[in-house]
Amino acid sequence: MHLGRNKQTTQMIIESKNDYLITVKANQIKLFNPLKDLAKVEEPISKYQEIDKSYGRQISAKN
Q: CA triplet 29, 45, 34: central angle to 5 degrees?
């Protein structure tokens, strides 16, 4: 998706006051680094953990 369109979509989400998860890649330095720093000092609102024991192995996903 074109960066300009991402900005428009993000602005629409903000204006609608809805919740939405937006991913930021590490190569988007101006966005990634401040979010990374924020994640170090802010406690999450909630946490989720899922454990899958299928196919003879255990896979754990934590949020």
A: 15
Q: Which residues 6+ apart lie within 8 Å of 60 measured at CB?
A: 49, 50, 51, 52
Render pLDDT for 51-62 as a digit per residue (tens, 0 to 9).
Answer: 777 777 767 766
How large is the greatest C-alpha to C-alpha distance in the chain, in angstroms?
A: 47
The model's pTM is 0.46
pLDDT greater at residue 33 or residue 61: 33
**HEC-encoded secondary structure of the chain:** CCHHHHHHHHHHHHHHCCCCCCCCCCCCHHHHHHHHHHHHHCCCCCCCEEEECHHHCCEEEEC
